[in-house]
Amino acid sequence: MAAPPTRFDDFILSVRQTVTDFDMIRPKDRVLVGVSGGSDSMALVQCLLRLTQEMAFGIGIAHLNHGLRPDDAQRDQAFVKSFSEKHRIEYHTQTADTHAYAAREKRSIEEAGRILRHDFLESVSQTHSYSKIALGHHRDDNAEQVLMNLLRGAGITGLSGIPPIREHGIIRPLIRQSKSDIRSFLDRIDQPFMEDASNQDTRFLRNKIRLQLIPLLRDAYNPEICNTLNRLSDVVRQEDEWANTLTEQIFESLDNLKVEPDQIRFGASPFIKLHDAVKRRIIRHAILKIKRNLKRITLAHVEDVIALAAGGVGGKSLDLPDRIRIFIDKGCLCFKKESVPLRQLNRK
Amino acid sequence: MAAPPTRFDDFILSVRQTVTDFDMIRPKDRVLVGVSGGSDSMALVQCLLRLTQEMAFGIGIAHLNHGLRPDDAQRDQAFVKSFSEKHRIEYHTQTADTHAYAAREKRSIEEAGRILRHDFLESVSQTHSYSKIALGHHRDDNAEQVLMNLLRGAGITGLSGIPPIREHGIIRPLIRQSKSDIRSFLDRIDQPFMEDASNQDTRFLRNKIRLQLIPLLRDAYNPEICNTLNRLSDVVRQEDEWANTLTEQIFESLDNLKVEPDQIRFGASPFIKLHDAVKRRIIRHAILKIKRNLKRITLAHVEDVIALAAGGVGGKSLDLPDRIRIFIDKGCLCFKKESVPLRQLNRK
Q1: Fewer CB near the terminus (10 Å): N or C of chain A?
Q2: Which domain, by its residues, includes B126?
Q3: Domain with A317 in it: what CATH number?
Q4: Collapsing DSSP states into helix, strand and coil, what is residue B155?
Q5: Is B155's CB within 8 Å of A241's CB?
Q6: pLDDT recorded at residue B348
Q7: pLDDT tens-digit profile of B118-144?
């Protein structure tokens, strides 16, 4: 006999709508939920837990102890563990040394934490055959991200904010909920959560934006600033998505196109006749294909490649981050991922 | 005998480059320069004056007395007139009653001033056969505009900032110069200018952004904030331009497309299968064609039209600002500019 229809809280209904709209979870998915113990991830796991039966998926919890502020970290870890036990949810945990990693890789603590968390989730997901990773980012996070990218100098993609779904099965079911929606939901279901003291530390850029800049913009310029930034990111994301589809089509039809795993080439002179916006997108697309990501590739690099293509002089070349070399060969613009560091190549 | 080659100041060379890059002025053009008497417009007119011979165009000066703060206004008007006489430049002036206009049209003083100035320049340009209108907007104005549009809730087009050239022959040769470039140029050539007291009035949103928000962002977040915003607006403008070209092509190939001066229709069901970003752009394009501008058309209006098209129920209709009515008729989405106000239509 089928279970009687469950009557959900409005918050859960709204999250379920987001999950459906973006096709985030399918029946039989195994969803690994990243849970810090803070309000966002506790709301996320409570919400998904209530949807498991109706939407026919399973969940597990992953908690990374960052090894920062030991007392708090122990407390958070114990809290998440006991929550998992109480609700009989698969539980995965690990302790990292964020300080050591940051020092070794020359990263900020903020960034090191993000990378370690991501690597941990990926590794648990692979080892334990999860099909999705769910994270607790919400509307206010998205507004902050758009503003942060804008201030740092982002292009179109930066303004599209936090993607609701991403390659490698990362999903963000709370992306349309606000922080205050999340707090009231936790209140209603009487779910406690841990406060993260580092969220108040304005030495971190993101905190400074959340605690100082957004309140200032809200009070002095636009009371609806978070909605405004969220709407902008929606529009920009859809425009970007459309432009990416078109770019792929244009890329595939480039003259003398040759694509190999570590090398891409196409005719330089028809390329330089394309619209500047298209040139930029084609270059980013080609680099993405051989480099697998666009980290450390700036707008200035892209402009340099356009200049190289326009000059069209054989022998001239550009060295980009992560062993990417770009050069002109027999009238073609070539993108190559070198197998040895470019420093050594140059020394030959 | 040809005149000896003129050696220009770096500032003038840079402005000449902007004029060339955007094809702003052609030989035999008659350029009407909007001159308030402030630093930007004085630098603009001095710069263009020096380029008239080499680039073979003529210039005239237009000064609108806004009728605000009478003493200052008289002083500015006399200053611009005497400049015109000294350099033997055609001079056009008029006095407006900005307060009365603002009250009558229910506009802010800022906006009323902008409309009156624009109408005055257009009318002088037509009466005296000018082919271009040059305005003194610069990089810092563009950065402010991008930020202002962002805070107000702009889409892609708002983020592209102040267009260097616009329909009706409006050109902005200083758009790549900074305020400090402009001040040093005026210093070097020893050209005085009038200070506009209203530029310090932070009741005006633009002034508040210039005097408070930009300095705060520069000090606490990004010392290069103006460059960052200018670069963003360049990239967004080119993306927008490309997307507009594509939109026109897609529009022309719409099923059952019928275009009349006051009415546009096309098949609703193939339309709703397009990418959301394309739907938005097609709707804006159709409204622009019959309304001649997109003033007062918001993102919410565009979303309503998409919903109307998706519902596809005959008889349902939407009323948009400026007598624009949108409805479904025989499976077509129809855009119509009504000749009588929609209020009267509805009363029938």
Answers
A1: N
A2: 10-229
A3: 3.30.465.60
A4: coil
A5: no
A6: 44
A7: 999 999 999 999 999 999 999 999 999
